[in-house]
UniProtKB/TrEMBL annotation:
The lineage of its organism: Eukaryota, Viridiplantae, Streptophyta, Embryophyta, Tracheophyta. It comes from the Eukaryota. This is F-box domain-containing protein.
Amino acid sequence: MADCSSLPSELVRRIAECLLDTNDLDSYMDFRAVCHSWRSATDDPSNSSDPRFCPRNWIIIDMDFETDSCLMVNTASGRVLRKDLPVLRRYYVVAVTTNGALFVLADREHPHAARVLNPFTGHMIRFTAPVPYNMKVSSAAFSCRSLPSLRLIWDSDRGQPDG
């Protein structure tokens, strides 16, 4: 049996880039988990807001808050995936972005500070602005540019949020 770590790093990198080019972010993360040399040869998404690591075409079709897992489907490929997300125990889920499967969260302990979680990479972007506790979000949009931005639109039936 061949040792996976003996593959040339350039070949490993090319395979990883193909996964990213086809928006196969979950397979990319599995690919990186194979061994240390494969992780070293590929880009680390855990501390990056690089647009290649923003999930596209994924929607969340079910959330199980008792087990902190979600069922997701890729609208382009039809691939179905269940993700366990124990990090959700520390946050309120405020919304899911419309342009992907990013979670907009409010911190349970710190004045409901807004967070955006990438469920595939575990990368979380922290915003200083709080999410008002009484806000019912009807739409959320997130941009993965050099300066990440978050736009929340609340339900007009509930009126303006306090503070």
